[in-house]
Amino acid sequence: MNGKKLRNTILKYGITLAVGALVAYAVMDLHGLWEADGVADRYKILCDAFTIPGVVLALSAVLVFVSNEGIFHGIAYALTYAVRMLIPGAAHKGERYGDYVERKREKGPIKHFGFLAITGAFYLVLALVFMALFYTTR
C-alpha cells in the first residue's frame, strides 16, 4: 500500500470513527450516563449510545449499495422532470428516462464505501458487549 492510499484509508476510518464517537458521546450525555444510579443503568445507556452510530453507519453503507444498483433513478428522474416543468423555458429539453439512466450509469458507481459498514459493525459489536454486560448484571 503506498503512502497516499494508506493516508486516505486512515483518514476515512478516522473521520468516521470520530463522528460515531461524537454521536455516542452526545447520546451518553443526553441520557445522563454520569448521573446513572447503578451499573446496569450505565451499561444500558452505553449500549444505546453505541447502537445509534452503529446502525446509522451500517445502514448508510446499505443505502450507498442500493443507490449504486440504480434503485433511486426513477425518483431522481421524476424530481428532475418536475423541477424542469416549473422553470420557464427549461421544460423543452426533453431528456427521456432511458437517456437519463444511461447518463447516470456513465458516471459509474460509488466505490470504496466499505469503511462505513466496517465502522458501523465495530460500533454494533461494542453495543452488543454492553448489552451482554447489562443482562449479566441485571
Write a concise synopsis of the structure shown.
With 138 residues, the chain is an all-alpha fold. Helices cover 78% and strands 0% of the residues. The longest helix has 30 residues, at 39-68.
Task: Outline the structure in words.
The protein is mainly alpha-helical. It has helices spanning 3-31, 39-68, 73-86, 97-107, 114-137. The protein starts with a helix and ends with a helix. The model has no long low-confidence stretch (mean pLDDT 92).
Q: What order do the helices and strands come in, and which of them pair?
A:
Blueprint: H1 3-31, H2 39-68, H3 73-86, H4 97-107, H5 114-137
Helix pairs in contact: 1-2, 1-5, 2-5
End-to-end separation? 47 Å
Radius of gyration: 22 Å
Number of strands: 0
Helix fraction by DSSP (H/I, runs of at least 4): over 70%
Task: Outline the biggest β-sheet.
Answer: none
Q: Indicate the structural class.
A: mainly alpha
Order of helix and strand elements from N to C terminus: HHHHH
Low-confidence stretches: none
- How would the global form be characterised? elongated
Mean pLDDT level: 92
- Estimated share of beta-strand residues: under 5%
Q: Number of helix segments?
A: 5
